[in-house]
């Protein structure tokens, strides 16, 4: 499934060719699709490895970022995180950098994988607390670590306003876009963040969390790794059930200002997802819509 303009097509034959040329010792291992996200296509290689190939040239930059920083950040975190083991180089079959990581066993987070959502919310909060308190090691947003979600809502106002306008004219399935935009604009008017910059994962949606034995086991896909303000980091908790969200909030002792900004980021990313992927990725659009409906229901009770 192609999601972006200028996307580089890839299949098992392409991956086999890359391995034969660059890692012939792995070329005969079993290879099978292992899913795809907005940025990468993935293949499981043997029992212990995962191949990730960026969809477009701009997505490839995240692989370099992961190779640089995950070996430094991973050992300081309780949860497992991706471990890069090989940096693939561009080739005629695939003209972008690509990477191989250690395979991490686990189950995507959903109602079948997690029974105690309050405990899960606390565990996710522990991961976020750990990450946000790791020393920046001299890194700053000027070092290729300036993803928009670590910045100010006001800096993104023009882009998100366009997404809201698009959804107002094209979304006819009962989603209250006007109410969502009001919540978002109220947060844009809040005081600008004044907290110090911290390390941010950037995209803690359930698809990037793995559970084992009902508990948070691993956090994957650090393509959105950045340095910035922490509010946007909390946005994906609206993808989790209310007990997880409440436990997360309590564990981190978030104030109302941060919570309001986090909710605005959750709205903005959801609206942008619906607008961008409406005609090409229905499953992701449904995920975004569910998040936005949860926000509206939650706002009605507060």
Write a brief structural summary.
This protein is an alpha+beta fold and 302 residues long. It has helices at residues 12-22, 57-73, 117-132, 157-170, 177-188, 242-252, 256-277, 282-300; strands at 31-36, 40-45, 49-54, 84-88, 98-102, 107-108, 198-200, 209-212, 215-219, 226-228.
Compile the SSE list and pairings.
Layout: H1 12-22, E1 31-36, E2 40-45, E3 49-54, H2 57-73, E4 84-88, E5 98-102, E6 107-108, H3 117-132, H4 157-170, H5 177-188, E7 198-200, E8 209-212, E9 215-219, E10 226-228, H6 242-252, H7 256-277, H8 282-300
Antiparallel strand pairs: 1-2, 2-3, 3-5, 4-5, 6-8, 7-10, 8-9
Count of alpha/pi helices? 8
CATH architecture of the largest domain: Alpha-Beta Complex
The name of the CATH superfamily of the largest domain reads: Aminoglycoside phosphotransferase (APH), C-terminal lobe
Domains (count): 2
Protein name: Phosphotransferase
Domain Aminoglycoside phosphotransferase: 32-264
Pfam family, one: APH
Commentary on this structure:
By secondary structure, the protein is of the alpha+beta class. The chain folds into two domains: 12-102, 2-Layer Sandwich (Phosphorylase Kinase, domain 1); 108-300, Aminoglycoside phosphotransferase (APH), C-terminal lobe (Aminoglycoside 3'-phosphotransferase, Chain: A, domain 2), CATH 3.90.1200.10. It is 40% helix and 15% strand. The protein contains eight helices and ten strands. It has helices at 12-22, 57-73, 117-132, 157-170, 177-188, 242-252, 256-277, 282-300; strands at residues 31-36, 40-45, 49-54, 84-88, 98-102, 107-108, 198-200, 209-212, 215-219, 226-228. The chain has a five-stranded antiparallel β-sheet, with helices on both faces. Strands 6-8-9 form a three-stranded antiparallel β-sheet, with helices on one face. A two-stranded antiparallel sheet has the order 7-10. A hairpin with a 2-residue loop joins β8 and β9 (215-219). α4 (157-170) packs across α7 (256-277).
């Amino acid at each position: 499934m192609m999601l972006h303009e200028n996307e580089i097509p890839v299949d098992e034959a392409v991956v086999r060719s890359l391995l034969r040329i660059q890692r012939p010792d792995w070329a005969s291992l079993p290879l099978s699709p292992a899913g795809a996200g907005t940025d990468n296509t993935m293949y499981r290689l043997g029992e212990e490895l995962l191949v990730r190939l960026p969809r477009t040239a701009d997505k490839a930059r995240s692989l370099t970022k992961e190779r640089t920083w995950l070996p430094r950040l991973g050992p300081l975190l309780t949860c497992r995180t991706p471990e890069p083991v090989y940096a693939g180089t561009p080739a005629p079959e695939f003209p972008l950098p690509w990477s191989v990581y250690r395979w991490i066993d686990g189950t995507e987070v959903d109602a079948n994988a997690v029974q105690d959502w309050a405990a899960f919310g606390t565990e996710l909060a522990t991961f976020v607390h750990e990450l946000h308190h790791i020393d920046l090691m001299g890194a700053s947003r000027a070092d290729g670590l300036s993803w928009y979600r670590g910045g100010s809502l006001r800096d993104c106002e023009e882009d998100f306003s366009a997404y809201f306008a698009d959804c107002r004219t094209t979304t006819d399935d009962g989603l209250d876009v006007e109410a969502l935009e009001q919540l978002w604009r109220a947060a844009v008017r809040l005081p600008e963040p004044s907290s110090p910059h911290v390390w941010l994962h950037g995209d803690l949606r359930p698809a990037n969390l793995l559970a084992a034995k009902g508990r948070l086991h691993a956090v994957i896909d650090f393509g959105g790794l950045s340095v910035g303000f922490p509010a946007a980091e909390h946005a994906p908790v609206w993808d989790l059930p209310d007990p997880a969200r409440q436990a997360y909030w309590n564990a981190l002792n978030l104030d109302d200002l941060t919570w309001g900004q986090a909710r605005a980021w959750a709205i903005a990313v959801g609206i942008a997802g619906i607008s961008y992927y409406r005609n090409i990725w229905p499953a992701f659009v449904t995920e975004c819509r569910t998040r936005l409906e949860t926000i509206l229901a939650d706002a009605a009770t507060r």
